[in-house]
Amino acid sequence: MEIVGRVPSEPGHAPPRGPAVGEGVWRFTAPALESSVPQARHAVRDLLTHQGVSGHGDLMPNLLLIVSELVTNAVRHAALLSPQIAVEVSIGRGWVRVSVEDNHPYRPRPLELEADQGRTGGRGLLLVQAIAEESGGKYDVDHTASGGKAVWATLPLSAAAAGPVPGGPLTSLRPSRSAPGSPAGPRPARS
Predict the structure, then answer these.
(1) What residues have CB less than 8 Å from 148, skipping those under 6 apart?
(2) 146: Cβ–Cβ under 8 A, 6 or more apart, which residues?
């Protein structure tokens, strides 16, 4: 797994109160293989630790569980049409967002799904949705410009530090015109 981009904090913006958290956007790419699930989780864990996100209660385990579920879904359901997946981590003032992008056009509808109690699988997106909602964050699925999809979740760093939690399509690898954490949140990616 390799990092293919990073956006530093915009100049002139003070870091959030409390422990310093490095704002920016990081994007990892990996083959759509089962071995990429733990690799993505470890890469995100190392990144979040390095950026100072590890001391925020249940945030780290919640984000790592979300990454595991989203990468697993991309590997299991999109690998045929998407041999490569991308994991993006965005850190803003008071929030962290993880998204997994693939090139498969199928858009899951987790809000309409009910897990079959007799099945051993099929609950991953419901789990992601529940974690996001319980944390005060957001979760959704967006189409990408390439015809694929990006499944994402945004969680506040903490209840006290949480400002507006951004939503919407994948963030750009270029700095946004609005300040990170502003009501507009990250800008959509442009292709």
Answers:
(1) 78, 82, 101, 102, 103, 104, 105
(2) 103, 191
Separation of alpha carbons 175 and 40, rounded Å? 24
User: Is residue 155 within 8 Å of residue 161, measured between CB atoms?
Assistant: no
Which residue pairs from 132-136 have beta carbons closer than 8 angstroms and sit at least 24 positions apart in sequence?
A: 132/66, 135/58, 135/59, 135/62, 136/162, 136/165
Confidence (pLDDT) at 29: 95
How many Å separate Cα 93 from the centre of its chain?
15
In this prediction, residues 132-159 reach a mean pLDDT of 91
Place of tokens 């409390």: 18
What separation in angstroms does the CA of 58 have from each of 72, 73, 115, 124, 128? 21, 23, 25, 18, 14
Cβ–Cβ under 8 Å, residues 170 and 182: no
Q: Which token pair is 85?
A: 């997946």
| Max intra-chain CA distance, the chain | 55
Q: Which residues contact 51 (CB under 8 A, 6 or more apart)?
A: 21, 22, 24, 91
The pTM (predicted TM-score) of the whole model is 0.71
Q: Nearest Cα to 48, choosing from 70, 19, 17? A: 19
